[in-house]
Amino acid sequence: MKRVYVNEEWCLGCHLCEYYCAFAQTNQVSMARALKGRKIHPHIRVEESGAVHFAVSCRHCEIPLCVKGCITGALSIDDGIIKVDESRCIGCFTCILSCPYGAISPSPDGHAARKCELCQATAAGVPLCAANCPNQAIVYEDRG
Amino acid sequence: MEYAIIGNSAAAIGCVEGIRKIDKAGEIAIVSSEPHHTYARPLISYLLQGKTTEEKMKYRLEGFYEENGCSLLAPRTAVSIDTAAKSVTLDGGEELRYNKLLVATGSTPFTPKMQGLENVSEDDKHFFMSLDDARKLASRISKESKVLIIGAGLIGLKCAEGIAGRVKSINVVDLAPRILSSILDAEGASLIQERLEFNNIRFHLATSVQSFESSNNKSAYGATLANGEELGFDQLVLAVGVTPSVELAKNAGIEASRGIMINSKMQTSAPDVYAAGDNTMSFDVSSGQSKVLALLPNAYIQGECAGVNMAGGDASFENAIPMNAIGFFGQHVLTAGTYEGEVFVSSSKDCWKKLFVSGDVLKGFMIIGDPSRAGIYTNLVRERTSLSSIDFDLLREQPVLAAFAKPWRSANLGGAH
Question: Helix (H, G, I), strand (E, B), or coil: what is residue B20?
């Protein structure tokens, strides 16, 4: 299955992936129009510590503790992609407590959990974080 | 029947999904004493609050049983297991034969011995464990109701939150000197108590009900507390705790203490009989103790592990830990592990946090407020990661992956999974 992988050696720490992630969620055509003046809530985040920076997003684990631990059944695996059904999520955040990568976030209003779903349901159809990483520090590949 | 499962909650559903990873066809029978499609038990308080519906709180979507080749026998109760003949006797006398059996009977609310409890009619006395409990409570409360809840644990307080906007008053009595004593220390508990009190929930702690009286001046019933207080009420919720449902297994000669004894493959002492969920003893790796971990994630993982093994696969589950994520009136509480060792406290406007470190590992933590990335801490507890192998000073401040050694990141963020 194709997943998002990061290579921290090549990460510039530019945070563009965060903006593209937020843009992908809007399904709009113009990034500037979609994001200008708005606080963004990306599902990928760039961590920085001294000279080290790298992006983190959902690993779509084969043994997903978030899905197993979900108390409502809102989290499920669909063709390898871990998805949240927001209508069934009650925002207890057991998934946030379960995820070893810190890759699941509360929605901006706090009512549900949100995460990377590999942009499958967006207009782009492919993860924009990887497609727009200027240094290919983020790639979308099938590594088995 | 190839597989029989007694129970229809998280452990049972985990078992079905575990079986189907290996065996796509073998017939599965699910015996459930509740007449419902599998539902998310912890959501009953959200149902009363109006934050979910009976339809949305289905733990798996409509069609789950058909898609997974399961026959749901409900409402049916298993009355005995014959491990030699490999059969389960159901109410009505019907025999259900199996090749592999999962006992996922969960737990039963505990009724304390309290003087005068019989003075409160069955209609006005409630447990808060099942959908039927929630429906009954909902049918009995109104804007004029005065509700008395015995027990300030997770169940009692979620019930309180669930009905807070729908009744006149809520009083909570608990023998413990603090609320949520199973997951929080005194300091953490006081933060949540404040939030609950702000929402008109009143607490009477470190005391107990001495007797219930069948009438009180203005209310249907009265309760006299050990500290001398008298409380009038018209609906009573008993939430003092739960007992693992082990009788069925014990009567079949299956080894059990407080819970059913299982190994890391979820096998019981009887051949071809597995157990999972709130009715089992788990080994908590954070404390090194065997205990009942009545937690939904634990139940699912145990059930799934049992299912894989029942179908001839090879799975084991060896790193159970206590973990709870719960919220009260928008305030999140996330806890995991065991509270022992050196304590690191931090407190800001958004987040109160306590980390417990002993013997180079993170033993446990409590977070109240911002839940962000708490799972990074949980993983340290679960995996007993050596803190000297990571930048714990950085991690103490906030849960970040930058605190891990670069090879860990390359393997986990850059490698295959």
Answer: helix
Please give the CATH architecture assigned to the domain spanning A1-57+117-144: 2-Layer Sandwich (3.30)
B330-413 has CATH 3.40.50.300 classification:
no
Beta bridge partners of residue B30, listed in sequence order: B5, B72
Show the CA angle centred on residue A91, arms to residues A90 and A97, nearest 5°: 130
Q: Please give the structure tokens belonging to residue A39.
A: 């606080």
* Whole-number Å distance between alpha carbons of B33 and B21: 26
Q: Residue B405, exposed/middle/buried by CB under 10 A (0-12, 13-18, 19+)?
A: exposed
Q: How far apart are CA B42 and CA B39, in angstroms?
A: 9
The counts of H helices and E strands in chain B are: 11, 25
Query: Which superfamily is assigned to B3-108+243-310 in CATH?
Result: FAD/NAD(P)-binding domain (3.50.50.60)
Model confidence over B274-315: pLDDT tens digits? 999 999 999 999 999 999 999 999 999 999 999 999 999 999
Q: If you count residue pairs, one on A and one on B, with CB atoms under 8 Å apart, how many are there? A: 136
**pLDDT tens, position by position, B75-119:** 999 999 999 999 999 999 999 999 999 999 999 999 989 999 999
Q: Which two tokens stand for residue B302?
A: 């145990």
Confirm if B98 and B90 have CB atoms less than 8 A apart.
Answer: no
Report the b/e string of B350-372 with b at 16+ CB within 10 A: ebbbbbbbeeebbbbbbbbbbbb
Taking domain A60-115, whether its CATH number is 3.30.70.20 is answered by: yes
- Kindly list the residues from chain B whose CB atom is less than 8 angstroms away from the CB atom of residue A81: none
ipTM above 0.85, yes or no: yes
Beta carbons of B312 and B99 less than 8 angstroms apart: no
Residue type for position B216: N
- How far is residue A5's CA from residue B233's CA, in Å, rounded to a whole number? 59
Give how far B162 is from chain A: nearest CA, Å: 13
Select the residue of A69, A73, A102 nearest B401 (Cβ to Cβ): A102
Q: Which two tokens stand for residue B394?
A: 């950085």
How close does chain B come to A32, measured CA to CA in Å? 28
Dihedral pair phi/psi, residue B369, rounded to 5°: 115, -130
